[in-house]
Design goal:
Layout: H1 2-8, H2 12-37, H3 67-71, H4 86-104, H5 107-110, H6 112-134, H7 139-156, H8 167-192, H9 207-220, H10 222-239, H11 247-262, H12 269-294, H13 300-306, H14 319-332, H15 334-357, H16 367-392
Helix pairs in contact: 2-4, 2-6, 4-6, 6-7, 6-14, 6-16, 7-8, 7-14, 8-12, 8-14, 8-15, 9-10, 9-11, 9-12, 10-12, 11-12, 14-15, 14-16, 15-16
Keywords: Cell membrane, Membrane, Transmembrane, Transmembrane helix
InterPro entries: Prepilin_IV_endopep_pep (IPR000045), Prepilin_pept_A24_N (IPR010627), Prepilin_peptidase/N-MTase (IPR050882)
Main location: membrane
Length: about 400
């Protein structure tokens, strides 16, 4: 009788939180597969799970999240090689993350948006773990992740619950996310190169086309800006070489354009900035897809070797961060994306100061800080944004 009474007192929301946590443990186990295989260019489906040391295929009892690691004492059943503690940690974090999301964003209220946030959590965790290991974020994670974010925007409907974006908001968030981060990269790289032109421009599409999209998008809007970038890429393809588009013209022209926009010329400063960033974001994603398809299957080490002979083209941040920002913008919308970047920059600065105080080299990439910022924006973003609006009297 007491068991029946207790069960009857459990609400559907509580059951969903428990189910989400259990689901998270299972997804966490699969996340470990992604963390190991994606940087190495391996299939995530074949061969089945096996020990990376002895290649022995793992049985069902070896794959129970957390419990298998504990029962085996953190060692392989077959060769006794140590199993990293990261495996149960990733599983526990995913289980905890999914449970918290289900509690804060009840699936019965939020609908598909709750599942979308769980997918985003997995992408952030997997991307951060890979970034910490290899200093890269695989395109196989971020580009499909951006598409999934837009899909969940469509599933969210016209008025996304809990401030989550609809389809238009997801597209806008993805473009502005990629565009804002790549614009920081473009100007930061230009400054690091002391305003010299790139020594190794990409062909047919790359940073030069992104800079062109920034300028064209400011005056013509995002889609015409993308069109100008694609036209430049077509010229490169026809010439079979990189036909230079001077950054003094594109990046310098954008700065002049913003000044003119603030003075009342053209569409206006705000619309010009939005158009420039969205055009650059769209071009970045097109370029990302192009280079992903061209070099698909290469490992992270091969990718690093590919660019090792181009030190003159200094970069302010990795291009993987650009695509990760697109993922975050697609799932959370542009307002929470801005909050993500503010938190990420602040957290990165604090970590950098701590590293300097301990006299250690700061080699952590920006991806994990973006993930931290996205989690803060996901959980507290609505309250922070509303508080900001109230402070401005909006």
């Amino acid at each position: 009788m007491r068991i029946v009474a207790y069960t009857a007192g459990v609400t559907p929301d509580v059951l969903l939180v428990i189910f989400a946590a259990l689901l998270g443990l299972l997804v966490g186990s699969f996340s470990n597969v992604l963390i190991w295989r994606l940087p190495r260019g391996e299939s995530i489906a074949f061969p089945p799970s096996h020990c990376p040391n002895c290649d022995h295929r793992l049985g069902v009892t070896d794959l129970v999240p957390v419990l298998s690691w504990l029962s085996l004492g953190g060692k392989c059943r077959y060769c006794r090689a140590p199993i990293k503690a990261r495996y149960p940690v990733v599983e526990l974090l995913t289980g905890l993350g999914y449970g918290v999301i289900a509690a804060l964003f009840p699936p019965l209220v939020v609908g598909w948006g709750a599942l979308g946030l769980m997918v985003l959590f997995t992408i952030l965790l997997v991307g951060s773990a890979i970034d910490l290991d290899t200093y890269t974020i695989p395109d196989e994670l971020t580009l499909p992740g951006t598409a999934l974010g837009i899909l969940f925007g469509f599933l969210n409907g016209r008025a996304g619950a809990e401030g989550l974006p609809d389809l238009a908001g997801a597209v806008q968030g993805a473009l502005l996310g990629a565009g804002l981060v790549v614009a920081i990269n473009q100007f930061g790289s230009w400054v690091l190169r002391r305003f010299r032109e790139r020594s190794f421009p990409e062909s047919p599409i790359g940073y030069q086309q992104i800079s062109l999209a920034l300028l064209a998008g400011a005056w013509l809007g995002p889609w015409w800006g993308l069109g100008a970038a694609l036209l430049s890429a077509a010229v490169n393809g026809a010439a079979r070489r990189a036909v230079r588009v001077p950054e003094l013209l594109t990046l310098g022209g954008l700065l002049v354009s913003v000044v003119l926009g603030s003075a009342g010329y053209g569409p206006g400063m705000i619309l010009m900035v939005q158009g420039a960033l969205a055009a650059a974001g769209a071009t970045s994603l097109v370029a990302g897809v192009y280079w992903w398809l061209k070099y698909r299957g290469r490992s992270a080490d091969e990718g690093a070797d590919e660019g090792a002979d181009e030190p003159a083209d200094a970069s302010a941040m990795g291009f993987g961060d650009v695509k990760l920002a697109a993922v975050i913008g697609a799932f959370l919308g542009w307002e929470r994306l801005l909050l993500t970047l503010v938190v990420a920059v602040f957290a990165g600065a604090l970590f950098g100061v701590a590293q300097l105080a301990m006299k250690r080299e700061n080699r952590v990439k920006f991806g994990p800080f973006l993930a931290v910022g996205a989690l803060v924006a996901m959980i507290w973003g609505a309250q922070i944004i509303q508080g900001y609006r109230d402070g401005l009297g909006l």
